[in-house]
């Protein structure tokens, strides 16, 4: 990582331009291995802009032989427009993170085919027939391979970029390499850790039903202390290289395959933020499920699978992380020479368990933060949004918020992942008082 | 800090040479403001090499009008020789830290007069008649101005480089600016947080009297877990820009003045490491004092002053830090908008107290680590070393170690600084069992 090129201060000055279909065709024709993968004449390629994210242009290019995905960063937030500028350098950090993830968790991220720093553009393997996992969850689809894949991804990317696996010097180089991605971190700091708890122009929620709940959160000082502690941890605990935005919209799946995409929020932060993101988005899928059923109990099997998945995501992640630690601790933390002999080995193993318990507690807090922002902040998710009846949606959302509030403020009462799923199960049919 | 020049990868290639007396005279003659400050003809200047530290060359240059101090980094550890190389870039980080400290705590560091990146050389104000504080403490001298000065230095340098005062972007830029100083951090990681707890060639202690105690520490797995947690915190908690080596040998004093010198270990780390360093070195001065008395009780007033100073260093630091937080929290942590109104203000104030309580606990742990390394590691201090009779010395050291072990392993039982000084007072005349 130490030899990675630093991002350009302002790539726009050095040949950046937004690529449209015709430019893209010419550009791709000159990248020989991409052109070969597509096959046939460039004129025959189909190019479709499919970006449905908030920030970037995404093209799918298909030729006679195969397809690729092309992602280009825009110098502003796509969702909002030029009034909200955002550095192109995020494409550099995304590329850097993707390269590292490909090395640490092979086969679990899209293959990188080409990167152009000046154009803030990356060409990747086209994932077909994968779909965005969140869409599958809304439809009630179960993904039996998901637990195995996502826990391998998290355990390996987090462990191998932590002080348990790296020398302090390598770790500091990694931190410095991603320090410049602070504009993307700032989005998280504002939209997740601040705005949902105060009056902010960009907030929205299912009105009028959640008006009173929104006001309650804005007035809940225990919650404000809890979210502020999490925010500080997010800003100042560079434990490992995070994906930084690991929700079910950043995961593409088939029944047997999982690919993690879009790590443009990558930076060195607290591990619990990534793990909590996965858990939170599964829990939201669980609470949203009641809103998607056409007949009572119709989705019971799916809901059971979701909670089982929540439990296994934590337990399998913890198991794999511990396994890596036991087998390959080459980092400067917890040096083996201090834990020699049988007594040392036993004490170190107890400390590993304690470390994972601390990480669990932080994960629970971050999962809560990721939930509340999707219900009261700027960015919502289709799990809830696709529940057409707003009152039904508000009921599902209020259940999720009730659990999240407890997870954030009474974090210590959640000692195991079964405490979390047990609390979720109890709230499945709880009827909140709504406004309006 | 974002525009600061990055250190040269290998300054030796770009004009580095070790300056000897004659070169130094010619060099200084060409720096007009330094030459003017010295006064008279360059040939008349006296140049004396006085470096008694472990790493660098230090010259005192005096002319007809005044004097300056010149510090040049060597490409190796002076104490050991060329077999232990050490990057010259540390002079860059020292300069960067000194500049920042001068800005944040004016008058409490030596004035910077000149810096040459290629030569790894810095010219500073000559501190006269200041002496190294540790020497004064060995002699039993009280410094009534010390508490006020050191707590201002720590409160201001730590607060204003923390997330409480900076935006997350500024903070990350600061972290990145110092990330390259990892070779100096590594010295701390090895010599403070690892070696004293295992067999290591460079360890030494007052043998044979402390042989059994040394073996006990090497076998004490609770202590090994505690020191490993502190090491991890040191490596991965960039809370603020630390001095990084804030012992009483890095502080020069007169009865009314205090100057903090030598911040070449500066990096973004946990605040408790700096505060703990000051407390630990005062506590060692306290325990060493018994070994310096020629008649029982001779130094009682001094010892009383030392413990009072320990108490006031913490309480005044905490008071000033809280005052800065209340008055000037412009950082991204704990945003004011989440703590509006009377209820919010009261809750935030309680959280500030809780923050300081957490910092106190970490400070206690780091103070313990800084103590043990001076008794069993490579670098000892004259507080103990100048106790001529080794058995008397070992008794003082064993008392300090007993307190340090409790502070590190039973940290939670030390709730206030009076718990620390109370425990120290109880150990003043405790007679340890010695080996040999």
Explain this structure.
The structure is a homodimer. The first copy, chain A, folds into two domains: about 10-125, Phosphorylase Kinase, domain 1 (2-Layer Sandwich), CATH 3.30.200.20; about 130-425, Aminoglycoside 3'-phosphotransferase, Chain: A, domain 2 (Alpha-Beta Complex). In chain A, about 50% of the residues lie in helices and about 10% in strands. Chain A is built from 15 helices and twelve strands. Chains A, B: Its EC number is 2.7.1.100. Chains A, B: InterPro entries: Aminoglycoside_PTrfase, Kinase-like_dom_sf, Methylthioribose_kinase. Chains A, B: One of its GO terms (molecular function) is ATP binding. Chains A, B: Pfam families: APH.
| Series of secondary-structure elements of chain A, N-terminal to C-terminal | HHEEEEEHEEEHHHHHHEEEEHHHHHH
Largest interchain contact: A-B, 45 and 45 residues
Strand portion of chain A, in percent?
5-15%
CATH superfamily of the largest domain in chain A: Aminoglycoside phosphotransferase (APH), C-terminal lobe
Q: Identify the quaternary structure here.
A: homodimer
- CATH fold-type name of the largest domain in chain A: Aminoglycoside 3'-phosphotransferase, Chain: A, domain 2
- Strand arrangement across the biggest beta sheet of chain A: 1-2-3-7-6
Which class of the largest domain in chain A in CATH terms?
Alpha Beta
Kindly report the average pLDDT value of chain A. Answer: 95
Annotation, overall tally of beta strands of chain A:
12
* Overall shape of chain A: globular
Largest sheet of chain A: 5 strands, antiparallel
CATH architecture of the largest domain in chain A: Alpha-Beta Complex
Low-confidence stretches of chain A: 1-5
Count of distinct structural domains of chain A? 2
Helix content of chain A: 40-55%
So how many helices of chain A?
15
Tell me the radius of gyration of chain A. Answer: 22 Å
Subunit structure (chains A, B): Homodimer.
Organism (chains A, B): Bradyrhizobium frederickii
EC number (chains A, B): 2.7.1.100
GO molecular function (chains A, B): ATP binding; S-methyl-5-thioribose kinase activity
């Amino acid at each position: 990582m130490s030899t990675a090129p630093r991002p350009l201060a302002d790539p726009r000055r050095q040949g950046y331009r937004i690529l449209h279909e015709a430019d893209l065709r010419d550009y791709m024709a000159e990248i020989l291995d991409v052109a070969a993968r597509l096959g046939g004449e460039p004129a025959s390629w189909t190019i479709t802009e499919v970006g449905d994210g908030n920030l970037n242009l995404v093209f799918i290019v298909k030729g006679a032989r195969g397809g690729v995905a092309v992602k280009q960063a825009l110098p502003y937030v796509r969702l909002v427009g030029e009034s909200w500028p955002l550095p192109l350098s995020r494409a550099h950090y995304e590329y850097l993170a993707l390269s590292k993830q490909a090395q640490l968790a092979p086969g679990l991220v899209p293959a990188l085919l080409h990167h152009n720093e000046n154009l803030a553009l990356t060409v990747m393997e086209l994932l077909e027939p994968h779909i965005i996992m969140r869409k599958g969850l809304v439809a009630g689809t179960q993904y039996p391979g998901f637990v195995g894949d996502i826990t391998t991804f998290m355990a390996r990317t987090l462990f191998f970029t932590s002080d348990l696996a790296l020398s302090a010097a390598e770790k500091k180089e990694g931190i410095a390499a991603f320090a410049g991605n602070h504009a993307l971190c700032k989005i998280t700091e504002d939209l997740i850790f601040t705005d949902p708890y105060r009056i902010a122009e960009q907030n929205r929620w299912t009105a009028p039903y959640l008006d009173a709940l929104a006001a309650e959160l804005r007035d809940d000082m225990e919650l404000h202390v809890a979210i502020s502690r999490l925010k500080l941890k997010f800003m100042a605990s560079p434990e490992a290289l995070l994906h930084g935005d690991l929700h079910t919209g950043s995961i593409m799946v088939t029944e047997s395959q999982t690919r993690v995409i879009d790590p443009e929020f990558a930076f060195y932060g607290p591990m619990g933020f990534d793990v909590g993101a996965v858990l939170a988005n599964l829990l939201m899928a669980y609470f949203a499920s009641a809103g998607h059923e056409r007949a009572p109990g119709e989705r019971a099997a799916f809901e059971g699978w979701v909670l089982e998945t929540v439990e296994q995501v934590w337990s399998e992640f913890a198991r794999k992380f511990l396994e890596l630690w036991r087998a390959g601790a080459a980092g400067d933390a917890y040096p083996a020479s201090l834990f020699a002999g049988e007594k040392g080995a036993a004490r170190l193993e107890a400390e590993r368990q304690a470390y994972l318990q601390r990480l669990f507690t932080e994960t629970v807090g971050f999962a809560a933060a990721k939930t509340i922002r999707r219900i009261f902040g700027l960015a919502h998710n289709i799990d809830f949004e696709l529940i057409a009846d707003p009152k039904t949606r508000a009921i599902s959302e209020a259940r999720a918020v009730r659990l999240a509030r407890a997870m954030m403020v009474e974090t210590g009462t959640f000692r195991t992942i079964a405490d979390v799923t047990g609390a979720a199960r109890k709230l499945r049919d709880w009827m909140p008082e709504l406004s309006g």
